[in-house]
Amino acid sequence: MALPRYAARTSEGIASLYETVKTMAVQFQFKPGQRINEVELARQLNVSRTPLREVLNQLMVEGFVTRAVNRGFIGRPLDAKQIHSLYEFRSVLECGIVRVACQRATDEQLAVLRAAVQASRDVPEDADATRLLALDESFHVSLARLTGNEEFVRSLESVNARIHFVRWIDMRQGRRSHTQAEHLQIVDALQARDEALLQTLMGRHIGRRLDQITDVIRTGFSTIYMRDQLEDQA
Question: Which parts form a coiled-coil structure per UniProt (predicted)?
């Protein structure tokens, strides 16, 4: 993978370095359980180990990498129970979000949201999974913004990043047709100001059983290691 070079001595450089290393972690370019070679990564990014370690420490706090005694930083696990816990947290968070949004969003804001959902339906089902997932995440963040509470937005963006890879696999497996129909149902319930229905719809929309997550993770592991083989052959 060709990586950009950074002027990591500046705050802008640190921010850029953080975003790149975070993207690598989100996409599991650091394999689960694999020791991150700081020397090699610093060389690839053309930075010293000091700013890189600062970034890795921040990502460890945020749950994107882990650390072990005598091994240093390690790629985070792709673990079904952990992912299930994140989905559970997201479900509770977003049920709270739609409840507050139902109370605070104006009719005009909800009309804009409906128009955005309807426009996104024009994107074909076989479009790139990254694009489809971006549309889905945008819808949920838009809901959070309707609350007028930035803490909801920050919390949602954080959990979305940690389950991004699993949700990307979901999109590749054709879940998008279900999500689009469910998005419109959620908007309908918002416009009807039906809080009880919103709780049901959002819980069903986000909820994932442990066996479903396990199946997606199996595909995720195959994707991670097949990706490396394809890159080696390129």
Answer: none
